[in-house]
Structures are given as C-alpha cells and as structure tokens.
Design goal:
alpha/beta, five-stranded mixed beta sheet, four-stranded mixed beta sheet, about 45% helix, globular
C-alpha cells in the first residue's frame, strides 16, 4: 500500500491517495477493466467501448448532483463551487462554469447546492446510513490481476469498511420496486460482485456489499439494501462475460463493432399489437 500519487500501476494493491482523474485515466500500462467499463463493454460493443476509453467524454451536467453528493457525504472528491444565477446561458456564466470544470471542480447552482446539502444532512441524520459511512476509507483505488483471464481489473469503492463495502446512490425514489428496477437497469448487481471480488483478491475477505440509496427530492428518504445470492451470482456471470470479451480483444488487438453483414431484425412485442396503431 502506498500513500503517494502513483501514475503507473505495475503491482496489485490498494492505492488510497490516487486522484479520481488518474484512476479513470487507467494507470495500468496494458489497460485494465473497471466495473463501469465491463457493463459498457456488454451493453454497447467493443469498438464503442474502446473509442470511449481513449476519448473520454467531457464532464456532464447530468452527473453533477451525484458527484456533489459524494463529496459532501463522503468528504472526498472534486471541489464544489456555486455559480450565481439561475441561468448559465450568459457569456460570463459559461466562462465561469468552464473554468471550474477545467480545474476539476463541479459547478452548481445555489438551489442544487442547497439540495445536495440537504441530502447530506439526511444521510448523516440516518443512524444506519451514517454509521455505515463512518469508520472506514472513502474512494480508494484497487488494482489486481484476474485469476482466470490474467487481465488487470480495477475498482474504486465509495466506502470501504473493515466489515462491508458501501456504495452511495442518489435516486428519484428509494422504494423497493424502484431500487430493484434500477439495479437491473444499471447493472448494480454486477458492480456488487466486481467490488467484492476486488476486496477478496487484495484483502482475502468476503465482505457484504451494501447500497445507501438517498432520494434527490425532499424529504430525502434513505433506504439501505443489499443484494441476495441470486443477484450476486447473476452479477458474476455478467462480469465473466465482460472479462472474456476484454481479454480476447486485448489479446488480438481487435475491438469489433456491429456485425459486418446484414442483420435481420424483428419488431419489439409492443409494436406488433395492432391496437397501438389505432388509438
């Protein structure tokens, strides 16, 4: 374990002081697969995945509230800065926003900042959520070679405790049905298995993976959940498929796109119902 910024990773380990930018730039010379990368690799195509990792997109407004919530609740991450005004379409506002992003920060409107602060206050006031996000280390970077394929993997858990891996999620609704759909839609079950495998490989511990969901709207209700065995098994299957694709593409240097020949497709079930066209 090291306590200084490392720009090139050649040894497996936990790197507590690595910046978010360095982690996402992938400091493994031969390349490594992250949980989000694994999910993108399977839901798009290898060619899209390879292009996106070599041409990372600019910071998106859509992720500002989530990043800000992580910073306020976990106490680490990009600096937050309020940009005055409800509209950012003036030349001065655009320049200020661009300057903040260029420096690695997150620009927020005052109302957004207040909402994120309220979310953080709600988490800290929740006995279980606050306890889970205490007495541990936030956003450490974990790197290790996969036993089965030999490729490098990386993970950056939101919060690593001695007895659990905790992930913070902001959401529109934290009721059980919405959470179940979000886990399936965004592949959070694969994330859970990926992070548990990281801790198992580096620390030799089999820790539970817990989610702290916090709603974006008042009263910022909170729901702490964990995945059952079937969900984790499904996540393992997804990760194994992604690891196999990544390993093969890395070995051959070929990152294929869509099929080169003609594909015959059928309509989705809803489009074949005639009543949909007569309303």
């Amino acid at each position: 374990m090291t306590t200084t910024e490392v720009l090139v990773i050649t040894e497996p380990g936990i790197y507590p002081d690595m910046t978010d930018a360095t982690y996402h730039a992938d400091p493994v010379p031969a390349g490594s697969l992250s949980s989000s990368g694994a999910r993108k690799l399977l839901t798009t195509c290898p060619a899209r995945y390879d292009y996106d990792r070599r041409h990372p997109p600019a910071p998106s407004k859509a992720f500002d509230v989530g990043h800000a919530a992580h910073q306020m609740i976990l106490g680490t991450g990009p600096h937050l800065e309020v940009v005055p005004g409800d509209r950012w379409d003036t030349k001065a506002a655009k320049a200020t926003v661009a300057e903040i992003r260029e420096a690695g920060g997150v620009p927020l409107k005052q109302a957004e900042h207040d909402a994120v602060q309220a979310m953080a206050d709600a988490v800290h006031a929740h006995p279980l959520a606050n306890a889970l996000l205490s007495d541990g280390q936030p956003e450490q970077s974990l790197f290790w070679p996969d036993d089965r394929t030999g490729i490098w993997r990386r993970a950056r858990p939101d919060f690593l405790r001695g007895d659990a891996i905790v992930d913070l999620k902001t959401c529109e609704s934290a009721d059980e049905e919405h959470i179940r759909k979000a886990i399936g839609r965004y592949g959070y079950h694969a994330q859970g298995d990926f992070y548990r495998e990281a801790v198992r490989a580096l620390l030799g511990q089999d820790l539970p993976f817990l989610f702290v969901f916090v709603e974006k709207s008042p009263p910022h209700l909170i729901h702490v959940v964990q995945l059952d065995a079937d969900a984790l098994a499904a996540g393992r299957w997804v990760n194994d498929q992604a690891l196999d694709v990544f390993a093969e593409c890395t070995r051959t240097g070929d990152w294929p796109g869509y099929p080169a020949d003609i594909t015959t497709i059928s309509l989705p079930p809803w489009a074949t119902r005639t009543e949909e066209f007569t309303r």
